[in-house]
Amino acid sequence: MKILLLGKSGQVGFELKRSLSLLGDIVAPNRHELDLEKLDAVNDFVNKTKPDVIVNAAAWTDVDGAETNKNLTLRLNTVLPALLATYAKENQCKLVHYSSDYVYPGTGTQAWSEESKTSPINYYGVTKLESDQAIENSGSDYLIFRTSWVYSARRNNFMKTMLRLAESKRELSIIDDQIGSPTTARLIAQTTVLALHSNLKTGVYNLAAKGHVSWHQFAESIFTKAKLFDFDSVLEKINAIPTREYPTPAKRPLNSRMNVSKLESALNITIPSWEDELADTLEEYLEKK
Ligand SMILES: NC(=O)c1ccc[n+]([C@@H]2O[C@H](COP(=O)([O-])OP(=O)(O)OC[C@H]3O[C@@H](n4cnc5c(N)ncnc54)[C@H](OP(=O)(O)O)[C@@H]3O)[C@@H](O)[C@H]2O)c1
């Protein structure tokens, strides 16, 4: 099986590059080999590669920057996936794509299911929802995984930001009214491999670690667990603050709880809790630091 992987240098892409090799030959161009903003070049590359499966882990992921870079965000997050879906439909290729908790409205306290109403509250979320809809309408064989609060030992993410700040700051103020499920890039990649191997039925699936926390609780867990790996910090106090005290260019959902039972029953798996995944990721990051 020939797999075309886009976004191999990203958090999820890096883990996919490691795990997908179990399933076949991987073609994984980096940005210099294939600039995904150039859609004609993408079209040529895909037609030349003739993959059996396309795994698209590339995206514009700067949520605040999306508000001021709308054209580019739209091209990468909506037009590119739509183009890939058209190729997939016309060439009996399977498309795997990653979407976001940001397609949901972010209100209330119920965990979102795949049938929940969608209503994004920022531009990044709009482009992720539009890509989901374009893929669903393409008639292709696809898997869309809606994930949330992604982190890993690589690139920029909340875990790494917390550890960096704790080396120089005695006090931090962290939001405690946004609730979600921190999810490792490794869990996403492993589940993707399992889904492809099991020939998971085409559709949209929520894919996030079980359980949920606020960013403030997540930060506390990061520091508590990091101490077990001899992490040195000057941090003395973490204040809990509401979202309104930390204004950002893009609005953030307060409720990112995800119901993953559809995926669990379709694959006959038990998705681990975010707490189970944190220690391994911390250890990996602190050891290579
Ligand atoms: N991060 C989260 O918290 C989160 C939450 C929910 C859903 N998701 C979704 O999960 C997926 C993976 O996210 P992630 O966190 O792994 O993303 P990431 O770490 O930001 O990686 C994005 C990838 O896209 C590539 N890329 C962007 N623009 C490109 C261009 N013009 N040409 C070539 N490559 C380009 C990047 O390449 P470079 O290294 O060259 O920049 C990188 O490999 C995305 O679909 C994202 O929307 C993420």
Layout of helices and strands, plus pairs?
Layout: E1 2-6, H1 11-19, E2 25-27, H2 39-49, E3 53-56, H3 63-66, H4 70-90, E4 94-100, H5 123-137, E5 141-147, E6 150-151, H6 158-166, E7 171-175, E8 179-180, E9 183-184, H7 185-197, E10 203-206, E11 213-214, H8 215-228, E12 237-241, H9 261-267, H10 274-288
Parallel strand pairs: 1-2, 1-3, 3-4, 4-5, 5-10, 6-9, 7-12
Antiparallel strand pairs: 8-11
Helix pairs in contact: 1-7, 2-4, 4-5, 6-8, 8-10
The chain binds NADP nicotinamide-adenine-dinucleotide phosphate.
Task: Please describe the structure with a list of short key phrases separated by commas or semicolons.
289 residues, alpha/beta, six-stranded parallel β-sheet, two-stranded parallel sheet, binds NADP nicotinamide-adenine-dinucleotide phosphate
